[in-house]
């Protein structure tokens, strides 16, 4: 597994919505924030707010913030993208779960991740591996049955 899946980031409450937000690396911000806003970023410890309706994308303890609208992945966030590396949307995976063929999708993502072919750190605005989200959805689905 690449190290994007094993790091456990610290969390901080979003100043806008109060959700618990995980820390992200500056390199994630530089890739996620649109031009020209990415030119004016103040380096620091930033956190990503994953709530799609919250206006804040990233915020730092020093009081700097980046609106979600300035993120390249804004549209994907609105569409509940599950896996930013391989372009898999949440409702597509939900459908696969119902049709009993979700495993092939998940196995593909696990295999690619194991081979170091994922790019969560840069593609996912949270900088986190998406595998946890697959497992979470699976659990939710099983609980509903
Ligand atoms: Zn928020």
Quick synopsis:
With 145 residues, the protein is of the alpha+beta class. It has helices spanning 26-32, 74-78, 90-98, 102-114, 120-123, 131-144; strands at 11-13, 20-24, 46-48, 56-60, 65-67, 81-83, 88-89.
Task: Provide key terms for this protein.
single chain; 145 residues; alpha+beta; N-terminal domain of TfIIb; Arc Repressor Mutant, subunit A; five-stranded antiparallel β-sheet; two-stranded antiparallel sheet; 6 helices; globular; binds zinc ion
Question: What features would you describe in this structure?
Answer:
With 145 residues, the chain is of the alpha+beta class. The chain is built from 6 helices and 7 strands. The protein folds into 2 domains: 72 residues, N-terminal domain of TfIIb (Single Sheet); 66 residues, Orthogonal Bundle (Arc Repressor Mutant, subunit A), CATH 1.10.10. Helix content is 36%, strand content 17%. The strands form 2 sheets. Strands 1-2-3-4-5 form a 5-stranded antiparallel β-sheet. A hairpin with a 6-residue loop joins strand 1 and strand 2. It is globular and about 45 Å long. Bound molecules: zinc ion.
Describe the strand arrangement of the main beta sheet, using strand numbers: 1-2-3-4-5
Q: Briefly note the CATH topology name of the largest domain.
A: N-terminal domain of TfIIb
The radius of gyration computed from the alpha-carbon positions, rounded to a whole number of angstroms, is 16 Å
* Second rung of CATH, namely the architecture of the largest domain: Single Sheet
CATH class of the largest domain: Mainly Beta
- Principal-axes geometry comes out as globular
Average pLDDT works out at 91
Low-pLDDT ranges:
none
Bound molecules: zinc ion
Task: Tell me the span between the first and last alpha carbons.
Answer: 31 Å
Main sheet record: 5 strands, antiparallel
Quickly give the structural class.
Answer: alpha+beta
Number of domains: 2
> What is the string of helix and strand elements?
EEHEEEHEEHHHH
What amount of the residues lies in strands?
15-25%
Count every beta strand, where a strand is a DSSP E run of 2 or more residues.
7
- Helix percentage range: 25-40%
Total helical elements: 6
